Amino acid sequence: MDPKSEVLLRQYDFLSGRILLINAPTDDLLAEFDASINPAVWTWNFNDFHYFQSQQADVHFGAEMPEAEFDQAVIFVPKSKELLNYLLHNVAAQLKPGSSIFLVGEKKGGIERAAKQLQPYGKTLKLDSARHCQLWQLVLDHTVEKKSLADWAQRYSISSPNGDLNICALPGVFSQNRLDIGTATLLPYLSQVTSGKIVDFGCGAGVISAYLAKLNPKNRIFAMDVDAFALASTQMTFDENQLSPEQIEIKAVTGIADAPLFLHAIVSNPPFHMGIETDYTASETLCKTSRRHLKSGGELWIVANRFLNYPTLIEQNFGRCTVKADQQGFKVLFASTQKNVKES
């Protein structure tokens, strides 16, 4: 069992009633609760959502807190400080004064810093410290007014050949405050991407999707991500720029296996984090298996850190990988499937 869950269970007597577990680990925690506790789970990770569904849990997937009454909430500390602010505010706005919010996390994950974010909402108490984790309790002492999801988005502008784009990024979304170096390196090459049916894998705030849509109104973009905050950000970015809703399909996915077939192109600044930990599984699988989702003559465009072995993986599966750019620590990689002579 995850050590964060173990620490929570050490203070089991503090838990009671209808409890919302937020960002909970995919372990056996729910099986440890008796009839006095009625748990529900809120996650924004689509893989975690499938796990809790398989456990027959009451689970909600999305960027917004489920609309229901809860007696208590347990927040498992996310990586992003801004995301924790969002979670605390929303939970405090939905629970009644006098309710308890528990915060649990690893020391290496910033639990001591995170505990300070509880202070504006009421009295805090450290309940436990074990397994390299801490558990804190907050007792709400006042009501909080809820804010709309859009109020939490950071906004910045980028340039494209067809005019500026306004990017909207919610808390916890990759590169929330400004365009990241990797995507900035890739953008000038997007005009070379074959137009048509295109997947933006790991769409984040929708920078690549919106850029491709702005470049060519005939492009049909499938914006895909495991993270509900990323998907909501992409939708906001399209709305903000008044891009045609017919151009975009936003979809939660567990990985590239959920992408459509017969694509003209897959474009990605691939993800490599799962919470606090670094995890290259999704991006390596993209390099290994994306070919099966492309039509004959279809293209793969990836930007990645220079030190990663993606060129080798792509070469093994496409036969060839071309480095289009190598600058500021990033490579833009290109590969294509063998074009059938019968196809135009």
General description of the model:
Helix content is 24%, strand content 31%. It has nine helices and 18 strands. The longest helix has 14 residues, at 81-94. It starts with a helix and ends in an 8-residue tail after the last strand. The protein folds into two domains: 3-140, 3-Layer(aba) Sandwich (Rossmann fold), CATH 3.40.50; 150-337, Vaccinia Virus protein VP39 (Rossmann fold), CATH 3.40.50. It is elongated and about 65 Å long. Strand 17 and strand 18 form a beta hairpin. Helix 8 runs parallel beside helix 9 (310-318). The strands form four sheets. A seven-stranded mixed β-sheet has the order 3-2-1-4-5-7-6, with helices on both faces. Strands 12-11-10-13-16-18-17 form a seven-stranded mixed β-sheet, sandwiched between helices. The model has no long low-confidence stretch (mean pLDDT 94). The chain has 344 residues and is α/β, with parallel strands linked by helices.
Number of domains: 2
Strand content: 25-35%
Query: How are helices and strands ordered from N to C?
Result: HEEHEEHEHEEEEHEHEHEEEEHEHEE
Task: Give the distance, in angstroms, between the N- and C-terminal Cα atoms.
Answer: 55 Å
Strand order of the largest sheet: 3-2-1-4-5-7-6
CATH architecture of the largest domain: 3-Layer(aba) Sandwich
Indicate the CATH topology of the largest domain. Answer: Rossmann fold
Largest sheet: 7 strands, mixed
Tell me the CATH superfamily of the largest domain: Vaccinia Virus protein VP39
Write down how many β-strands occur, each being a DSSP E stretch of 2 or more residues: 18
Q: Structural class per helix/strand content?
A: alpha/beta
> How helical, in percent, are the residues?
10-25%
**Overall shape:** elongated
EC number: 2.1.1.172
Protein name: Ribosomal RNA small subunit methyltransferase C
InterPro entries: DNA_methylase_N6_adenine_CS (IPR002052), Mtase_sm_N (IPR013675), rRNA_ssu_MeTfrase_C (IPR023543), RsmC/RlmG (IPR046977), SAM-dependent_MTases_sf (IPR029063), Small_mtfrase_dom (IPR007848)
Function: Specifically methylates the guanine in position 1207 of 16S rRNA in the 30S particle.
